[in-house]
Amino acid sequence: MKAIFFDRDGTLNIDSHGYINDPKEMHLFLSSAEVLKYLKLLEYKIFIISNQSGIGRGKIAPDSYRRVNDKFLMLAGGYNTIDDILYCPHTPEQNCNCRKPELLLLDIIREQYRIDFKASYFVGDKITDIYCGKQAGLKTIMIDNSDSGPDDKFFYEGKVVKPGICIQSVEEILNIIEK
Q1: Which one of 7, 15, 125, 129 is the catalytic residue?
Q2: Confidence class for position 142, pLDDT limits 50, 70, 90
Q3: Residue 4: beta bridge partners?
Q4: How far is it, in rounded angstroms, from Cα 19 to Cα 144?
Q5: Phi, psi at residue 47, to the nearest 5°?
């Protein structure tokens, strides 16, 4: 089974200040819902893998996260479009196994849904998303909505990490994903 793994904040929705803790602050990028629905028509499983360190930092209450996530789901087409959402609530300092770029959340989904990683993608806006996808053997797509210089964003722990494809907006995925 083929799948597309998406980061959430900054990839599918606007992330204006880093910690979304109110459903009123949840706004998808213009074409996100349509892109997700189209990819579903192409018979891709759609998964959201998200680091939510705001929970571990005490900036987002677990109940607030659930309400924000419910709003995200409603805007994105619900579980008719999104197959599953997994998130890490820990801070980087906690060194857990579920925080991207660690692979635990991807491994859980691969096992539960029998996903063929060679036929699948990871889409994100941060180098940790790309590094995670590459470690897992997924094709990687980076949505580059940053203002950093051309090479500044391609380093993780002293290593150069280049995405398979770099695009400017989520709707460009429609020109890339195999039918």
Answers
A1: 7
A2: very high
A3: 46, 121
A4: 19
A5: -125, 145
Q: What does 29-72 look like in DSSP terms, one character per residue?
A: -TTHHHHHHHHHHTT-EEEEEEE-HHHHTTSS-HHHHHHHHHHH
Q: Which of 9, 15, 125, 129 is catalytic?
A: 9
The CA distances from residue 84 to 10, 15, 93, in Å, are 18, 21, 26
Q: Give the containing element (helix H, strand E) for 140.
A: strand 139-143
Residue 9 designated active-site: yes
Range 3-175 has CATH code 3.40.50.1000 = yes
Looking only at the bridges linking them, the beta strands covering 159-160 and 155-156 are antiparallel
Handedness of CA 8, 98, 114, 125 (dihedral sign): positive
Is cis: bond before 101, omega within 30 of 0?
yes
Stated pTM of the model: 0.92
129 is catalytic: no
Residue 150 per-residue DSSP state: T
Find residue 6's DSSP bridge partners: 48, 123
Contact 138, 6 (CB under 8 A): no
- Residue 80 backbone zone (phi > 0: left; psi -120 to 50: alpha; other: beta): alpha
Q: What's the pLDDT tens digit per position in 109-125?
A: 999 999 999 999 999 99
